[in-house]
């Protein structure tokens, strides 16, 4: 910024303008991205924050917005909408107490380990405290709503989709990638074939699986009738409906895990594998000592990418089950969408903010506590 | 080279039993992938009769395929409009996102710069002030924005430059990428109102702009690693020859990361092509895209499976073809992003 000290002579203005442009080119290059994100992310976020703190009502000739503080959040967490977001708590028995004791113990152990290392920073402590609190509350809500007589709400449903879905997709994707990573014929054929579901629109997947799961006219109907279950419908029971959503989600997203993990496996140090094999190591030992360390950073990152996207699930449950039976398959995004459709804009924004909060804490924690160590492990 | 390294020589090494299990498992998953797709494809050649009278599996053997549904959806119904919308919106938003995103990623990797924290703070405060002024005091939004813009410029020219605290490249980068975590449902209501105010609701422009913004973080995330991976000396020698940063970017850096750009382009294209929630809010008739049209097939008479299957087939066919041809690039591109991202 001291370049202006050079005396400007007659022919200089045009050149100095070009110089200024070149000096500022970094900012100019970033500017479009920043402007786009300001318009479509930051600005809407602030307005949504305002909406979540107010009550929206249609009025003659338009609408009115009245500031009501945290009432929308209070309604969701402790008031009339609690059953919707958090669910209905069941009777907490010995099993639930045991699970919560284990979770609490584990979280406290992790916190204690951090402090005992003696390298605690203010930011690190703050982040860990928030992550611990969120993990504890989510575990509590999950355990309480799964207890006898409880009904899970949209938070727990979303968590189920995220945790079970991502875990199953990762397991299947890794398994398929390991199979395909072996010296087999037709690897490229499988690679192309297994990739296809990723490109099908989720709405299309939802309808496709509704067709497939049709008890009277679907392709598996004769099979089901042979077992005498044709009267039963998966859409009327909570767990089978959730399972359908998970099956559709898994069908779509396993390819993503597969394709990236396969590329990582193909990149692992070939000579080490050969050497280990010559020394008589078995497949599991090779996987544990060579393959896994080599692909761990990639694995952590694909799981992170999937986590980020999994929290946003709406298309599948909306089309497959409409969120039913009851609330059994309703995700938080769908919850927010339904609130919007019933003109409860404040409630809709509040649910959206709850989702934003949870997914941010989970994803940032995952990045800091899993992805980063996994990368350090590699180098 | 790769092929010679680990395909033929080691095939015999595997025990025959293990090989059988491997192929059996792979064949099983192939079935899992293919059965749904096959069912959609043959359902599109069925009519109400064939669907309702129980499952039929093989065309020409247990039912006679007809083109009725195809004729109905493509020629009699207005399917081409949404299809064209989808093509335009997906292509335009992907092009924009890749252009803007790779520009930003390049600058973040190669050029050191700072954003003054005070400037950011002033901007945010003014933004909140404008929103409050418009929402609670009923000020015209045009007036509020103009006043705030002027105030922001004045503050930039006066005190902001003298402050010390600043955000570096990595802060800006983290901020851009972290935008992807935001669930679209949080932002979609204000975006809806914004386009309503600008009278752009239910237009392709609204969808293009929104999709560009939504996919921008992914582009930055992936392309930054491609740029970080190319050697510096080419760019440096060009700069010594007097080329501007923009010139270096377009003539040297971009061509060097071609294959990575292809991967990014394809991934973003698929995301934009399949996007549902934002399209549901921002379009209803004129700018309707395919996912919304597909989901709207659930009529009061129950879903018309045959018509819907036609829509699903025409929707997935082009991306399947493109991505199958280019999928090797995708895997490699994603791998680079995932390793260093």
UniProtKB/TrEMBL annotation, chain A:
Keywords per UniProt: Cell membrane, Membrane, Transmembrane, Transmembrane helix, Transport
Cellular compartment(s): Cell membrane
GO cellular component: plasma membrane
Any matching Pfam family: BPD_transp_1
One biological process term in Gene Ontology: transmembrane transport
PROSITE patterns: ABC_TM1
Domain ABC transmembrane type-1: 155-366
Keyword flag Membrane: yes
Membrane topology value: Multi-pass membrane protein
Keyword check for Endoplasmic reticulum: no
Transmembrane annotation, as ranges: 28-51, 94-116, 128-147, 159-180, 192-213, 243-265, 286-308, 350-371
Family: Belongs to the binding-protein-dependent transport system permease family.
Protein name: Sugar ABC transporter permease
Species for this entry: Pseudaminobacter soli (ex Zhang et al. 2022)
């Amino acid at each position: 910024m001291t370049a202006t000290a050079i005396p400007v002579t007659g022919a200089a203005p045009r050149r100095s303008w070009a110089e200024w442009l070149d000096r500022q080119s970094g900012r100019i290059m970033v500017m479009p991205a920043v402007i786009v994100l300001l318009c479509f992310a930051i600005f809407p976020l602030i307005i949504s924050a305002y909406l979540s703190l107010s009550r929206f009502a249609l009025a003659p000739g338009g609408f009115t917005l009245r500031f009501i503080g945290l009432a929308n959040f209070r309604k969701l967490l402790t008031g009339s909408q609690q059953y919707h977001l958090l669910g209905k708590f069941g009777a907490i028995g010995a099993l639930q107490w045991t699970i919560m004791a284990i979770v609490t113990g584990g979280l406290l152990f992790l916190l204690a380990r951090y402090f005992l290392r003696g390298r605690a920073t203010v930011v690190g402590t703050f982040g860990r405290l928030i992550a611990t609190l969120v993990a504890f509350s989510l575990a509590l809500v999950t355990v309480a709503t799964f207890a006898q007589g409880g009904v899970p709400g949209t938070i727990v449903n979303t968590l189920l989709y995220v945790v079970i879905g991502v875990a199953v997709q990762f397991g299947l994707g890794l398994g398929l990638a390991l199979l395909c990573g072996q010296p087999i014929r037709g690897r490229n054929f499988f690679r192309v074939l297994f990739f296809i579901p990723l490109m099908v629109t989720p709405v299309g997947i939802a309808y496709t699986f509704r067709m497939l799961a049709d008890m009277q006219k679907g392709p598996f109907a004769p099979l089901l009738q042979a077992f005498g279950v044709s009267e039963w419908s998966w859409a009327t029971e909570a767990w089978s409906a959730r399972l359908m959503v998970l099956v559709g989600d898994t069908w779509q997203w396993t390819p993503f895990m597969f394709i990236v993990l396969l590329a990582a496996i193909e990149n692992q140090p070939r000579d080490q594998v050969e050497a280990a094999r010559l020394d008589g190591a078995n497949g599991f030992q090779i996987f544990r000592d060579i393959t896994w360390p080599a692909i761990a950073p990639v694995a952590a990152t694909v799981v992170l990418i999937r986590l980020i996207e999994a929290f946003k699930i709406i298309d599948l449950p909306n089309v497959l089950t409409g969120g039913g039976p009851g609330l059994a398959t309703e995700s938080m995004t769908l919850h927010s969408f339904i609130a919007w459709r019933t003109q409860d804009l404040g409630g809709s924004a509040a649910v959206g903010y709850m989702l934003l909060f949870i997914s941010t804490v989970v994803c940032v924690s995952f990045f800091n506590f899993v992805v980063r160590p996994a990368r350090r492990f590699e180098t | 080279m790769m092929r010679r390294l680990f395909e033929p020589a080691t095939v015999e090494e595997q025990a025959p039993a293990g090989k059988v299990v491997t192929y059996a498992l792979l064949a099983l998953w192939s079935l899992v992938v293919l059965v749904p797709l096959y069912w959609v494809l043959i359902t599109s050649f069925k009519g109400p009769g064939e669907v309702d009278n129980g499952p039929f599996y093989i065309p020409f053997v247990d039912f006679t395929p007809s083109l009725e549904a195809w004729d109905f959806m493509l020629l009699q119904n207005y399917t081409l409009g949404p299809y064209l919308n989808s093509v335009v919106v997906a292509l335009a938003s992907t092009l924009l996102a890749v252009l803007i995103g790779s520009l930003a990623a390049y600058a973040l990797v190669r050029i050191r710069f700072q954003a003054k924290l005070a400037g950011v703070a002033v901007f945010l405060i003014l933004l909140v002030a404008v929103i409050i002024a418009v929402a609670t005091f009923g000020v015209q939004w045009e007036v509020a924005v103009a006043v705030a813009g002027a105030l922001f410029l004045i503050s930039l020219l006066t005190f902001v430059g003298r402050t010390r605290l600043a955000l570096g490249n990595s802060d800006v980068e983290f901020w851009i990428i972290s935008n992807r975590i935001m669930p679209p449902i949080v932002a979609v209501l204000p975006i809806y109102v914004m386009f309503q105010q600008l009278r752009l609701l239910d237009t392709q422009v609204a969808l293009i702009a929104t999709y560009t913004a939504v996919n921008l973080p992914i582009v930055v995330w992936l392309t930054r690693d491609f740029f970080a991976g190319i050697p510096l000396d080419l760019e440096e020698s060009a700069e010594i020859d007097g080329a501007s940063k923009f010139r270096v970017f377009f003539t040297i850096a971009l061509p060097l990361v071609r294959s990575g750009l292809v991967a990014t382009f394809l991934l973003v294209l698929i995301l934009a092509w399949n996007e549902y929630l934002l399209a549901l809010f921002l379009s209803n008739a004129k700018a309707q895209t395919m996912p919304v049209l597909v989901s709207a097939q659930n009529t009061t008479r129950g879903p018309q499976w045959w018509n819907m299957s036609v829509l699903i087939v025409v929707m997935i066919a082009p991306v399947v073809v493109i991505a199958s041809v280019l999928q090797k690039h995708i895997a490699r591109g994603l791998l680079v992003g995932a390793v260093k991202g």
